[in-house]
Design a protein that fits this description.
By secondary structure, the protein is of the alpha+beta class. It has eleven helices and seven strands. A hairpin with a 2-residue loop joins strand 6 and strand 7. Helix 2 crosses helix 3, helix 6 crosses helix 7 and helix 7 packs antiparallel against helix 10. It is elongated, with a radius of gyration of 23 Å. Keywords: Repeat, Transcription, Transcription regulation.
């Protein structure tokens, strides 16, 4: 049984309940859940209502403080986005609802003030986090329906990073680092090979996935056990040299020295990409 502490709007309330002899505070979202409700009124939640603990803290602040500053409509929209994420993924950290809602509200304010911020990684995010991007598009639809505001692809990309954060337990900044690292590596490969790797190509997707997990290993300090450097250096010297440069620059960008073993793995993928590019050019 929950007790109303504050009605935010017809579809959102702040409520408390007793758990393990302690009073816990929650944001409760549900169609019509706040309609006609009064402070101190008791109610039961149903299967379609969604509850979010106000005891959590993120880099943007404490949920209890954030919920006071965010307009309820954006909490509803963020909740709908996470509900969509739960249809596609088994585990979703619903506490992301607060920083996501905060971001969406701020994005709308920027748009109304003609202060849109471009996202140079939108195309990479769309491919790197494909399902997350599709889920984030729910926010675009809801903002248009409920507020007559149309956000662009760049903003959808930023929301997709929040969705990814909810799914993988990564900070949004870490997800952005991964996307940035992929773009940096692909740019370096294009420069070294004097070619343009199309985002929709098989070559890009193969390289993207390898770099994605390589960056995640670096950020999480996960070791690579099998050392193939000697073999790769002798078999594919050009790719190994390119991989060495890329790993050095990537380490500088991430502020972490990459394990030398990563060079051989990256070189192997580079060689594969070069073969793909050659085949694609021959077929063109």
């Amino acid at each position: 049984m929950f007790r109303i502490e504050k009605v935010l709007n017809h579809n959102a309330v702040i409520a408390v309940t007793k758990e393990d002899e302690k009073i816990k505070e929650y944001l409760v979202l549900g169609k019509g859940i706040g309609f006609g409700k009064k402070v101190a009124q008791q109610f039961d939640i149903n299967s379609t209502d969604r509850i979010y603990s106000l005891e959590k803290t993120s880099k943007r602040g404490r949920a209890k403080e954030m919920v006071k500053a965010i307009s309820p409509i954006y909490l509803e929209i963020a909740g709908e986005v996470l509900k969509e994420a739960e249809k596609k993924f088994q585990h979703v950290d619903n506490n992301i609802v607060f920083p996501m809602a905060d971001h969406i509200e701020y994005a709308v304010k920027r748009m109304k003030n003609s202060e849109q911020i471009s996202n140079p990684l939108t195309d990479d995010i769309r491919v790197l986090f494909y399902l997350e991007y599709k889920i984030a598009e729910v926010a675009r639809t809801l903002l248009k329906e409920r507020l007559d505001v149309m956000i662009d692809d760049d903003e959808v990309g930023y929301i997709a990073l929040h969705v990814h954060s909810a799914i993988q337990g990564e900070d949004v900044s870490q997800s952005m680092q991964i996307a940035s690292a992929v773009r940096q590596c692909v740019s370096l490969i294009e420069k070294e090979t004097h070619t343009t790797i199309k985002i929709e190509s098989l070559s890009y997707n193969r390289m993207m996935n390898h770099i994605r997990y390589m960056v995640a290993r670096v950020l999480n300090n996960e070791p690579v056990k099998l050392n193939m450097n000697d073999y790769i250096a002798n078999t594919y010297p050009d790719s190994f040299a390119m991989a060495t440069v890329i790993c050095e620059k990537l380490g500088n960008s991430l502020g972490k020295k990459l394990n030398e073993v990563e060079i051989g793995y990256l070189a192997m993928h580079l060689e594969r990409v070069k073969c793909d590019i050659k085949q694609e050019s021959e077929m063109a």
